[in-house]
């Protein structure tokens, strides 16, 4: 794909959840994807039905997450970097809604990736391709938990191909601290921020690009 043409897409798949969530959820996502010679970008809105079951505020029977995400990446024509490599930045917003409380945050992100494009012969089409992308998501204005970490996305085939169906695996590894309940109470806030944990999330799904 070489032109700056936005292509709508939809994505759906099961998620394995950490950080006090119930272990399973379903994620649905829709957005726009651009793949050109020197630029790749994506804007998306997503929803999952994840709910908290171990958050210290039980019973908390209902919950879901909403997401907005936008990013732009550039393929610089700089030697010795190959044209398959890309680097960029983005922004994301997320909101956790539960029966007992709501949390939301804005987070900047930076990252990049590589498209593996393997032709079966010099005169025929590619028989294999994939994309690996890694974004570092910063804490942003998340003063309550300070969540930050890496998002890893693996796509088969590479979205650079002129295809409609894709398999995507998305893995998030995040570090966060215990929820800060009162910023004005400095000693309590410092104690809660010192209590850190690690959480992993994984989604395996199918993307259809129109």
Question: Your description of this structure?
Answer:
With 210 residues, the protein is mainly beta. It has a single domain (7-209), classed as Lipocalin (Beta Barrel). The chain is built from 1 helix and 10 strands; from the N terminus they run βββββββββαβ. Strands 1-2-3-4-5-6-7-8-9-10 form a 10-stranded antiparallel beta barrel. A hairpin with a 6-residue loop joins β6 (102-119) and β7 (126-137).
In DSSP terms (H or I, runs of 4 or more residues), the helix count works out at 1
Overall mean pLDDT stands at 92
Secondary structure: helix percent:
under 10%
Number of strands: 10
The CATH architecture term is Beta Barrel
Structural features:
single chain, 210 residues, mainly beta, Lipocalin, 10-stranded antiparallel beta barrel, 1 helix, 59% strand
In short:
Helices cover 4% and strands 59% of the residues. The chain is mainly beta and 210 residues long. A hairpin with a 3-residue loop joins strand 2 and strand 3.
Write the layout of secondary structure elements.
Layout lengths: L6 E10 L7 E12 L3 E10 L14 E12 L10 E14 L3 E18 L6 E12 L10 E9 L8 E13 L8 H9 L1 E14 L1
Antiparallel strand pairs: 1-2, 1-10, 2-3, 3-4, 4-5, 5-6, 6-7, 7-8, 8-9, 9-10
């Amino acid at each position: 794909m070489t032109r700056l043409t936005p292509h709508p897409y939809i994505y759906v798949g099961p998620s394995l959840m950490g950080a006090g969530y119930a272990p399973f959820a379903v994620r649905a996502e829709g957005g726009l994807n651009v793949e050109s010679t020197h630029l790749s970008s994506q804007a998306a809105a997503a929803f999952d039905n994840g709910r908290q079951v171990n958050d210290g505020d039980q019973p908390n029977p209902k919950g879901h997450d909403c997401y907005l995400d936008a990013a732009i990446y550039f393929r610089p024509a700089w030697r010795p970097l190959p044209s398959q490599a890309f680097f960029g930045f983005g922004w994301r917003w997320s909101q956790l809604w539960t029966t007992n409380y709501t949390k939301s945050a804005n987070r900047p992100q930076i990252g990049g990736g590589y498209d593996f494009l393997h032709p079966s012969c010099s005169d025929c089409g590619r028989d294999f391709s994939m994309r690996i992308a890694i974004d570092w998501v910063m804490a942003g204005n998340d003063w309550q938990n300070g969540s930050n970490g890496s998002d890893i996305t693996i796509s088969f085939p590479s979205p650079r191909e002129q295809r409609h169906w894709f398999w995507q695996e998305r893995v998030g590894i995040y570090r966060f601290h215990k929820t800060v309940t009162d910023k004005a109470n400095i000693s309590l806030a410092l104690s809660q921020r010192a209590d850190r944990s690690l959480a992993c999330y994984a989604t395996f799904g199918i993307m259809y690009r129109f």
